[in-house]
Fold Signaling peptide TAXIMIN 1.
Amino acid sequence: MCCGDDCECRPLGFLLGLPFAFLSLLLSIIGVIIWIIGLALTCICPCCLCVTIIVELALGLIKAPIHVMKWFTTKIPC
């Protein structure tokens, strides 16, 4: 419900963001695969700094759908 300026319910922004969130979901699946491979490589050779950076990038890809939906819902007014 909208209460003054604190509008948390933005169904139009949610609906417009769904296709982009779906694409982000596909990217997050790729991120999960990269994350699993990166963790395995980190266990084998923990001294590789580049693998750690790749794992952090994969975590960002996993969180992408949430960030996309939050961004769309904040850009569309009530």
